């Protein structure tokens, strides 16, 4: 699954519960805020639920043993989350706003294993060890505290996107894990509670609980700690009906990044003289973004998206030592985006903690934009994404 690579950090210590523990009654975990699971997602869920279900025909036999399979899609921030004000509770410095995609889902099965000595974690079919295993185990520990349970679990998680490459694998990964683990441990949770829970695994994951556009509230008024934890979650953001967008993803390098986003944002907050000014401008960007989405103004949405991302990268470049995720091919893609605009197309770039470039455009012009980017960056693989659904349970007994 999606645990981001910790190149310079250690897994966080188990955190205290963020909500009252519930009795181990069957969970109420709505699958999605946005619609039914697709047949293929469900099929993937059952496939990835190997550890949960054994063979599909054993599904009935597994009922009651505390297992669940969930699917979640990555989200890409148009207004970025970059920097925490509270590391332990994963509380951000400012609100962020994202688009959940319809590509690159993560499917995660969680099965309780009462006889096991500890949590076992399979990522992409491989046994995880070290910080990757510990990050998932810490998250399960949190779920257990909330659910008042003690049994270890087996987690089997499969990404369809390269992990740790700035393609939001930790968002889809922890969103799917939150939904599956809550159901397996019988933690009653609605999408808002699951968003809060997913946030504890990886901040950006809280937005993948919802389809389409979503805003993660920083809850600054609530301060920090447990009080802010209760209200720092994502919510869907309405957009004008006529605003039909696509995100063209230019994968210039699918390899894992050298510095994890967690470590990079920590360094940026601590050392970059540009960080505070960027946060202040990001607050304004978010207000203007909400208005642009409500008005269905694609050019305004795109301009705000691009300036917010470039500003975030500027803060990292000014960190000491600098964090630079953009590669020569990223800049080639940015030039191609400018050229598309000069030709009159609404195309705007955003980049995360990696060299890959995502281009926001009108859904009706996505194939034209993709073709131009394939030509400009021939070594890249280019994927067209549309708005996708929120995280959902696809199988499980929710015990
Ligand atoms: C650049 O959510 O991966 O993608 O909370 O430390 O796990 P942690 O960080 P993570 O950071 C994502 C940063 C980003 C911007 C964004 O998604 O908003």
UniProtKB/TrEMBL annotation:
Keyword Iron among UniProt keywords: no
Classification via Gene3D superfamilies: 3.30.230.10, GHMP kinase, C-terminal domain
Domain spans labelled Mvd1 C-terminal: 248-380
Domain Diphosphomevalonate decarboxylase-like N-terminal: 72-220
Region (Disordered): 1-37
InterPro entries from the UniProt entry: GHMP_kinase_C_sf (IPR036554), Mev_decarb (IPR005935), Mev_diP_decarb (IPR029765), MVD-like_N (IPR053859), Mvd1_C (IPR041431), Ribosomal_Su5_D2-typ_SF (IPR020568), Ribsml_uS5_D2-typ_fold_subgr (IPR014721)
One annotated GO molecular function: diphosphomevalonate decarboxylase activity
EC code(s) of this entry: 4.1.1.33
Amino acid composition bias (Low complexity), ranges on this chain: 20-37
Enzyme class: lyase
Domain of life: Bacteria
Keywords linked to the UniProt accession: ATP-binding, Lipid biosynthesis, Lipid metabolism, Lyase, Nucleotide-binding
Family assignment from sequence similarity: Belongs to the diphosphomevalonate decarboxylase family.
Name of the protein in question: diphosphomevalonate decarboxylase
